[in-house]
Write a structure and sequence with these properties.
The complex is a heterodimer of chains A (40) and B (389).
Chain A lengths: L5 H13 L5 H14 L3
Chain B lengths: L2 H18 L10 E2 L4 H5 L4 H5 L2 H13 L5 E2 L9 H6 L4 E3 L5 E3 L12 H6 L1 H13 L9 H30 L3 E2 L1 E4 L3 H21 L1 H10 L1 H9 L10 E6 L7 H21 L4 E5 L7 H4 L7 E5 L4 H8 L4 E6 L1 H6 L2 H15 L5 E5 L11 H14 L4
Parallel strand pairs in B: 1-2, 2-5, 6-7, 7-8, 8-9, 9-10, 10-11
Antiparallel strand pairs in B: 3-4
Classes of the chains: A mainly alpha (40), B alpha/beta (389).
Chain lengths: 40, 389
């Protein structure tokens, strides 16, 4: 089973509930985009 | 767009597209590298424009409208630290003028023994190892307050995208080509700029070069995701922008060993899909021309900073279009006639056969990156003079 870390839980909730990306593939892509945007 | 603007737009798009594929168009394209210089030119300070949409739009209107351009490589976007203030960290701060400056000591958040974790899963490593170190908000357990703060961060990122789009619409309304279609940093530059800092990565390259190389390769998909998230199909007259930072400091041997594998993989990936890549070769790349000659032909634009462009054209001109050449220092310190003479010599030497884009040698950031009357004179001159007969 996948390990849900606090940050993963947080990012998935923001993307799913706030940004409205519910579908699995769409949600995963949006979470990755959010991760990339915060690199710097 | 009016019919006349539409016609100009189509002409310029064709001009840029042919040139970026290393061909000869009707004229030498003239492209803007005006960034925050445009704010000072409009009579404001960066801080005045930061949170003022109206002033920001006025800056863009003037930067795009007061000079002759066929297209723009970037825009005068002023960015604050609001997102990073909420996150409680980050790698830069604003100086007294409102310009972004790297915060000393803020980059090196990855340890030298953590390459295997980065290689295993870059996204997981960033989210769960790096970000808790970089941002106070992302350290510790989930809370509802954190959720609210992160929603604000997501909203602010969205606002930034809307601002970019508005600036691009202003360019289009003037018949200018926004010649930038997505962007990425090469993987080893991502490690330099965001994870290990200069001293860290230079030490890693000597002590564990295989790890640096493998980490670069592990981040290729990350870079592809970054571009493909924002664009769909290659657009004529546009290129993916890729500024390059580390290679200017690397020997050819180290470049080949650690940087090249992920660099060429990305170059091949995007050019195979029909995209043009515009590399910004910051500082000097002459020591690496043998490698750059192996880049895919006709789909690369080399925007050079300090290289001798005549030499670059001689060694790389069969492979890539060359952009840049007009020194910002001359635009500031020289007379108008000196600037025009310099521009004429660039066009005389670099335009024959096509594949040359007239632009500044550096992104124009501060007021000392050029005087407006000189910029106006050389851009108009380059447009008038750079005709293929």
């Amino acid at each position: 089973m996948e390990n849900i870390t606090p940050n993963k839980e947080l990012f998935e909730k923001v993307v799913s509930e706030h940004m409205g990306k519910k579908e699995k593939d769409e949600l995963e892509k949006a979470v990755k985009a959010l991760i990339r945007m915060l690199i710097g | 767009m009016t019919t006349n603007i539409e016609r100009l737009y189509e002409e310029r798009k064709k001009r840029l597209d042919i040139t970026m594929h290393n061909g000869q168009a009707d004229r030498v394209p003239v492209v803007s590298m005006v960034s925050t210089w445009g704010v000072y030119y409009a009579g404001y300070t960066l801080k005045e424009v930061l949170d003022d949409e109206e002033k920001g739009d006025e800056v863009v209107e003037k930067a795009y409208g007061d000079f002759y351009w066929d297209g723009i490589f970037g825009n005068p976007l002023v960015e604050g630290t609001d997102i990073y203030d909420i996150l409680g960290g980050g790698t830069f701060a604003l100086n007294a003028d409102g310009m972004r400056q790297t915060k000393p000591g803020s980059i090196k958040v990855m340890n030298e023994n953590e390459y295997p974790d980065l290689i295993k899963d870059p996204y997981d490593f960033l989210l769960n190892t790096i970000y808790p170190r970089r941002y106070k908000l992302l350290n510790g357990p989930y809370t509802d307050d954190k959720y609210k703060e992160m929603c604000t961060v997501a909203d602010k990122i969205k606002e930034k995208g809307i601002k970019y789009k508005r600036y691009n619409d202003i360019a289009k309304s003037k018949g200018l080509i926004v010649s930038r279609q997505g962007s990425f940093f090469n993987p080893v530059d991502l490690i330099l700029d965001n994870l290990r800092d200069f001293s860290g990565i230079m030490s890693d390259i000597k002590r564990q070069p295989e790890m640096v190389k493998e980490a670069g390769l592990a981040m290729v998909q990350y870079c592809i995701d970054n571009v493909e998230h924002s664009i769909n199909e290659p657009e004529p007259g546009c290129a993916i922008f890729a500024p390059m930072h580390l290679p200017q400091f690397l020997s050819p041997k180290d470049f080949e060993r650690v940087y090249w594998p992920s660099f060429i993989k990305l170059a091949n990936y995007f050019t195979n899909k029909g995209y043009v890549i515009r590399y910004y070769f910051e500082s000097n790349y002459e020591h690496l021309y043998d490698y750059l000659q192996e880049l895919p032909k006709g789909q690369i634009v080399g925007l050079f900073e300090d290289d001798d462009l005549r030499k670059a054209k001689k060694f790389l001109g069969n492979n890539m279009a060359i952009a840049g050449g007009m020194p910002t220092s001359l635009l500031y310190l020289g007379s108008t006639q000196e600037c025009i003479d310099y521009a004429k010599a660039l066009i005389d030497d670099l335009a024959p056969g096509g594949g040359y884009i007239f632009a500044m040698n550096k992104i124009m950031l501060s007021p000392t990156d050029g005087r407006a009357e000189n910029l106006k004179a050389v851009t108009e001159f380059a447009h008038e003079y750079g005709v293929y007969k």
